[in-house]
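Data availability (excerpt). All sequences and predicted token strings are deposited with the supplementary files. A representative entry, CbtB-domain containing protein, is shown inline so that the format can be inspected without opening the archive.
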Amino acid sequence: MAQSIAPPSSATPASGVSVPATLPVKAILPWAFFFGLLMLVLLYFVGAEQGATSLFSGTDVHEWVHDGRHLLGFPCH
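Structure token line:
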């Protein structure tokens, strides 16, 4: 006979409504910081990597992000 596998009784309250698992803020905070920093770096390269604030000489980075720069509304020429 097939047996049904029921979730543990502590996961579902008496009303039968499932309760979502909670994640502690300590587990999310390092990932949020990492992705926030990554987004700031990407925003810099798309929006400001040219001219006086350029970290790399030449126009290589400008050419790689040129279409994305226009798509996001950054003027470049």
